[in-house]
Amino acid sequence: MRKPRTGFILIGITAALCLTIFVYFDKRERNLVNMILRQNHAASDTHDPIFVDKMRNTNIKYSRDENMDDEEKWNNDQSASEKYSRNVLVDKGIQLKLQLPLKGQTFNPVVRGFVEQLKRKGEVAKDVEIENIGPYAKSHLQLRDTDLNAKELKNIKNCKATSKQDYQKNYGAFFGGDHGRLQNIRRTHHTYLDETKFMIEVGGNWGWDAGNFSKLYNMNYLILEPLTPYTDILEKKFAGNEKVSIYNVGLGSDNEVVMVNLEGNNACATTKFSKKNGTVPIYIVNAIDFLTDLGVGVYELDLLTMNCEGCEFEVLETLVKSNLIERIRNIQWATHTQVSIPNPWERYCRIHELLKRTHRPTYQYKFNWESWRRKDIK
Question: Are 324 and 141 in contact (CB under 8 A)?
């Protein structure tokens, strides 16, 4: 009988050991996430002082009602003074959230370092003061025409006609391709990133994508995560990394606070569009306000990536309405047509047509994941 080769046996044992170690540490990190979530559940955002007042007895804008949309409920149930008072509280709450990553400074330290680097390279004027960069960026905002021409309307009609088939086909291709490894493209695709570049991620969750992005490219990095327990996890994960800054907010079309439930594995399916009565408030900031306050527009953002359970629709629809879209070099997003978003298929197709005016796809699995680059960039 032929004796097995010792070398092959050792290789097999080593491979099995590496796989065991990988599974162990991945499971250990996930267990840590779940432990932190359990610890934070009793002290969740439900105790936010802005929402303690009248939360149990008042039908406020942020509660859900099956028979009435939020705007109608707001108009019917609240007086003008109550609405004004509530909006002021929301704005104050958002401002507090936005100040936390500054760590006592007058401006975000990650963005400050990035802008100073651009000044040295001559890409931002030296007389631009960082504390005034937000108003300066806002002063250059202009509306873009979003009326659709006949060709674009026809493209939307064709896009809608095959939307559900395209979703099913591309879902299998993206998440099952190359034995499940193809989906890593959302991280490995962005080889233009390096330590001099700047990206923003919307929907950081517990940091799986964020950790990979940071290790791969070491760029200047802002992460937005509206769920406080996950912001805490991200803070621990990136403690000591001066190139990463974390905001406990989400992006959307308006400044608002929405009541949500933690849904899905590691709350990865939590969405503001759920029709269930929520118990946890999350803070949402208007996308253009957030980006221009950071100075985007004065300089260009290298990558905006979004995986935020439907907020992508609101963010993209907001951005294409202004010339700020022209200052974002790359935009990547997951498409969440399966959450309770009004008219998701047509909105997706319309976003495509408007975005095609300034950008082009660099990879695309329609209705699942895709990345677009500004047309003037190779």
Answer: yes
Least confident of 24-33, 135-144, 191-200: 24-33
Indicate if the pLDDT at residue 63 is higher than 50. Answer: no
Say how far apart CA 122 and CA 116 lie, in whole Å.
10
For residue 187, which of 206, 213, 223 has the smallest C-alpha distance? 213
At 152 the three-state DSSP class reads helix
Residue 112 C-beta-side C-alpha neighbours within 13 Å: 14
Distance CA 272, CA 36 (A): 22
pLDDT exceeding 90 applies to what percent of the chain?
Answer: 57
Write out the DSSP string of 306-362: E-STTHHHHHHHHHTTBGGGGGBSEEEEE--TTSS-SSHHHHHHHHHHHHTTTEEEE
Handedness of CA 299, 362, 290, 320 (dihedral sign): positive
The whole-angstrom separation of Cα 252 and Cα 170 is: 26
